[in-house]
Amino acid sequence: MKQQQAASGRGTVSHSSECDMPTAHGCFRMHVFAEAGSGREHVALVMGDLGGEPAPLCRVHSECLTGEVLGSLRCDCGSQLDDALARIAALGRGILIYLRQEGRGIGLTEKIRAYALQDQGLDTVEANERLGFDADLRNYRPAVDILAWFGLPQVRLMTNNPSKLSALRAEGVEVVNREPIIADPTAHNEAYLRTKRDRMGHLFDPLDGGED
Ligand SMILES: Nc1nc2c(ncn2[C@@H]2O[C@H](COP(=O)(O)OP(=O)(O)OP(=O)(O)O)[C@@H](O)[C@H]2O)c(=O)[nH]1
Ligand SMILES: [Zn+2]
């Protein structure tokens, strides 16, 4: 019963609650969506009126407890999340969808196992494979359904990840523009960023000074 879609449901998700959410970047409207089957609670943070032209700025962000809550410097997730909210707030309009798919979909326990393997010299892709997973197990369908719930056929998407871009487009989201979202490399995350660029095709400019 719990997993049946509510009247306001859309595809794989049902809208379950909402409130105003003041943040360091200003006040957003926070919406929670329950995903059928998994029960995962995804979030949309919305600022301003999303209708009309131009298509709103949008970030589809995947959960990273270590980077976003604990301040881990192994990845760029915390600064990307902060940057995305700041850019939406600067325009006064946009949507951030926060998907609860920790560790590119393998969950926290396995992500930490993958980190331990990276400490032994494997890169982020090799570590996932050693654990028996594909490099990326994420599912963007809930994000597509959340955008549909808001009646948003078009977005300007902040990402460097071509797989995310093509997955959203394949599911019918019209990404009218891709906007890079670049975190400054640090001594701790430089190898990780390099692997994302070289093995996962991420569209980074700055790692080698912006020439590629
Ligand atoms: N399995 C695994 N997951 C990781 C690792 N480092 C970060 N993650 C997860 O990766 C997800 C973020 O994905 P990224 O590949 O960093 O970036 P992205 O969101 O695909 O791409 P952008 O839109 O350009 O930011 C989060 O769910 C993190 O928890 C790792 O070494 N192994
Ligand atoms: Zn992270």
TrEMBL record:
CDD domains registered for this protein in UniProt: GTP_cyclohydro2
Cofactor info, note text: Binds 1 zinc ion per subunit.
Reaction(s) catalysed (UniProt annotation): GTP + 4 H2O = 2,5-diamino-6-hydroxy-4-(5-phosphoribosylamino)-pyrimidine + formate + 2 phosphate + 3 H(+)
Keyword vocabulary terms for this entry: GTP-binding, Hydrolase, Metal-binding, Nucleotide-binding, Riboflavin biosynthesis, Zinc
Its biological purpose: Catalyzes the conversion of GTP to 2,5-diamino-6-ribosylamino-4(3H)-pyrimidinone 5'-phosphate (DARP), formate and pyrophosphate.
Protein name in UniProt: GTP cyclohydrolase-2
Matching HAMAP family: RibA (MF_00179)
UniProt keyword Membrane present: no
Domain GTP cyclohydrolase II: 17-179
Binding site for Zn(2+): 64, 75, 77
Active site: 136, 138
